[in-house]
Write a structure and sequence with these properties.
Largest sheet: none
Radius of gyration: 72 Å
Strand content: under 5%
Distance between the termini: 227 Å
Number of helices: 2
Oligomer: single chain
Shape: rod-shaped
Order of helices and strands: HH
Helix content: over 70%
Number of domains: 1
Length: 180
C-alpha cells in the first residue's frame, strides 16, 4: 500500500499538532477554493445573465434589422420598377422630341419654301396687276377705236349718201342742162 504524503509527514514528525496544522491549512485552502468557486460562479452567472441580455438585445436588433432590410428590399424593388418606368418614359419622350424636332425642321423648310414662293407670288401679283391694267387700257383703247370706227363709218355712209345724192343731182342737173 502506498504511503501518502500526510502519512509520511505524520510518521516523520509524529505530532498531532502538525496534523492539525495540515488540516487547518487544507480547510483554509478548501474555503478559499470554495470562495473562489463561488466568486467564479457568481461572475459566470452575471456573465451568463449579461450574455442573455446581450443575446436578447442582439436578437431584437437583428429582428429590427431584418424588418428594416425587408422594408428596404421592398422599397428598392419599388424604386427599380419606378426607375424602369421612368427610363421607358424618358426613351418615349426622347423619341417624341426627335420626332418633334424633325417636324419642326420640316416646318421651317416649308416656311422657307413658302416665303420664297410668296416673294415670287408678290412679283407675279405685280405682273398680273400690270397686265390687268394694260388689258384694261387696251380694251378702253379698243372701245374708243371701235367708237371712232363706227363714227367714221357713219360719216363715211353719210358722205357716201351725200355723194350719191350729189351725183344724182349732178346727173340730173347735167340732163337738165343738156335738155335746155
Amino acid at each position: 500500500m502506498p504511503v501518502s504524503h500526510c502519512d509520511r509527514y505524520l510518521k516523520t514528525r509524529g505530532s498531532w499538532f502538525a496534523v492539525s496544522e495540515i488540516g487547518q491549512a487544507l480547510l483554509h485552502r478548501h474555503e478559499a477554493y470554495v470562495r473562489n468557486q463561488e466568486t467564479l460562479l457568481a461572475q459566470a452567472e452575471r456573465k451568463a445573465a449579461s450574455s442573455r441580455d446581450k443575446i436578447e438585445s442582439l436578437t431584437t436588433s437583428n429582428t429590427q434589422l431584418l424588418s428594416k432590410m425587408s422594408t428596404l428590399v421592398k422599397e428598392n424593388t419599388s424604386m427599380e420598377k419606378r426607375l424602369a418606368q421612368t427610363s421607358l418614359n424618358l426613351e418615349v419622350a426622347d423619341a417624341s422630341n426627335r420626332t418633334l424636332l424633325h417636324e419642326l425642321q420640316e416646318s421651317r423648310d416649308s416656311v422657307t419654301r413658302l416665303s420664297a414662293m410668296s416673294m415670287k407670288a408678290v412679283g407675279w401679283e405685280a405682273r398680273v396687276q400690270s397686265l390687268t391694267e394694260e388689258r384694261d387700257d387696251l380694251r378702253e383703247e379698243k372701245r374708243a377705236e371701235s367708237s371712232r370706227a363706227r363714227a367714221a363709218e357713219s360719216r363715211a355712209n353719210a358722205l357716201a349718201e351725200k355723194c350719191g345724192m350729189l351725183k344724182y343731182i349732178s346727173l340730173n342737173d347735167s340732163d337738165l342742162t343738156t335738155q335746155i
